[in-house]
Amino acid sequence: MDNEIKEKYHIHISSKRKWFELNLKEVWQYRDLIVLFTKRNFVLTYKQTILGPAWIFLNPFISSIIYTIVFGGIAGMSTEGVPKILFYLCSNAIWLYFSTIITKNAATFTQNANVFGKVYFPRLTIPVSNVLSAMVQFLVQMSMVLVFLVYYVIKGEVTPNWWAFLLIPGILVHLGVMGLGFGIIISSLTTKYRDLAILVTFGVQLWMYATPIVYPLTQIENGFLKTVIMINPVTAPVEAFRFAVLGQGSIHMGFIVLSCIITISVALLGIMIFNRVEKNFMDTV
Amino acid sequence: MNKNEEIAIQLNGVKKRYKLGQIGGGTLQGDLQSWWARLRGKEDPNTKIEQGQRLVGKTFMALNGVDLTIYKGEAIGIIGGNGAGKSTMLKLLSRVTAPTEGSIEIYGRIASMLEVGTGFNGEMTGRENVYMNGAILGMTKAEIDAKMDKIIEFSEVGDFIDTPVKRYSSGMYVKLAFSVAAHLDSEIMIMDEVLAVGDMAFQQKCLNKMSDAATKEGKTVLYVSHNMNTIRQLCTRCVVLEKGKVIFEGDVEEAISIYLGGCSNVKKIYNCRDIAREAICDGLIHINSIELLDVENSVIYDNQRLKINVNYDALEEFSNLAFRIIVFSSQAVPIGMAASDAVIKTYKGENQVTLSFDFSQLAAGNYNGRVVFYEVNQYGGEVIHDVVHQAFYFVKEKRDSTNDTTFVWKVRAWGNISFPDVEVLS
What we know:
The complex is a heterodimer.
Chain A: H1 3-8, E1 10-14, H2 24-29, H3 31-45, H4 54-74, H5 84-106, H6 108-111, H7 113-116, H8 125-155, H9 168-190, H10 195-209, H11 224-231, H12 235-246, H13 253-280
Chain B: E1 7-19, H1 28-39, E2 55-56, E3 59-71, E4 75-79, H2 86-93, E5 101-107, E6 110-113, H3 126-136, H4 141-155, H5 170-182, E7 188-192, H6 200-215, E8 220-224, H7 228-234, E9 237-242, E10 245-250, H8 252-259, E11 269-271, E12 285-293, E13 299-301, E14 306-314, E15 318-329, E16 334-339, E17 344-346, E18 349-357, E19 365-376, E20 382-397, H9 411-414
Parallel strand pairs in B: 4-8, 4-9, 6-7, 7-8, 13-20
Antiparallel strand pairs in B: 1-3, 1-5, 2-3, 9-10, 11-12, 12-14, 14-18, 15-16, 15-17, 15-19, 19-20
Helix pairs in contact in B: 3-4, 3-5, 4-5
């Protein structure tokens, strides 16, 4: 063995743990694996289905129609003059992006226990690939949103802030990192306390109602409720997204900064816990 | 092997502790308490572990202070009974879990196969799985592309490569998985009995591939198996683990005989009193000791009969007791059986019987005997009174008639029976 190789691949394992170890370099070395995981997420979801990838469209489309009927029709909620179906499609796309990341990542350890127990690879590749596949899913859904958008723009019913489309990549990264952070915290804790796995589905649903997804923010009167919704770190990016696409809603700089601070702290905390858990989780899972 | 050579793996006082019983879902308070204690660097109030003891309170030391150095290019066999800590050691080396104490230095990339087909997904085709598996094991897509043809060829799955692996037979599955691992660009290979499923021809192919890896490519191979023949074939050095500790490291044959209860412990009198008995024994007879008569160092030559004195206690009187011996090779393979007639007279209390066996057809080698006292009842069924495994050890040696002292019995090729000489008729 050349000394070069020897040094290059030297691994030191000890019982001592570092509190923070990101090891992004290693994750980068395994980038092909991330791509494969991302691909697999799609391939496996739609294997043995008749409609196949069409489900990526159908899923949010059907729930948007339901929202249009229930919230727009029966409850008679206003969407601030934006065509209802477009409003819900758009909100749904961004929320589905965020919630997919959380729920998928929350199952990182429990679902991959088999593989994790047999071979080492940077565990962070799984959450990262989950974010990437959610991103692809979002882009596909966005294409559907755009079809509706163009139709209504031609009809003159919406006026998007086209310049703000440039913010969308930033919003995606922001929500992606936040979802990743929350997801891996939950997944790290579920290795020991399975209760959280059950709580996730329920919690994510609750979270959606605490975020202006099925209603525009302007519908909420100032007060305690509005404060809670504004502090919710998902609100600001969602509002910014709708501001761009629908020309409705607003960008609150203060809350965006707050949301960023929360995102960064959650991501750091998440990686910290994740690092500690990944070393020994096989003994407890 | 030159000990000054480069080190591939070094373990320093490695310990691994497991908690017994249910993990998690316990008390959150207990967890917080432990966590707080750890944080301040104090002793965990919920786990008290003393030095050197293996099982204390609710924890268990799967590895209890292992020091081991493995050099580059070695093919190391790791043997030991179930629960000796073999798999835990491999898990630590392949970084699936971290040690509780101690440190490990690894120089080189590791390809670990603790189980075949890690990450294989039934829905995906063989080819897709090769990519997936390869990437999990640390290869890049370009590397896998470059080796795809070799992998497919080695795996012998041929045209099935584009079929979902859920339609594969278990043998094909293993073959494909092994092929991926075998073609990794790694410096260290870790294998945990992965060959168990493939057919004989493929097992042989894998062993050859692995020993090639060690001897020609200078890779380091760590191999865990209960199959002593494959250990013997592949390994250049052997480590015997027992109760979480290394009890022997060195020569392969010696290690195997230590693991199998070996021959290093030849004695004249074997005490069987305290050996645990199986449930099938009714306990009416209990063998206390076995003495080998007329032999030195337990060696019998050529046609010499083996005579033993068996001392045993009986709870009842017997008139038709029978004795049987099953001879095992040091590889724990049964070689043959010899039985006495049901004529051993036995009184209540302590008894002694002298027996003589004809082992003239036994080839040279190390053997051990399993002894059985039994009775045939009126229905023709057997009543087992006492069984002692590895009750005594003996060595058979052959003096060559032509005085050619270099004549060696090739156990692996010829087996353990030496039939009488062939008569040349015309």
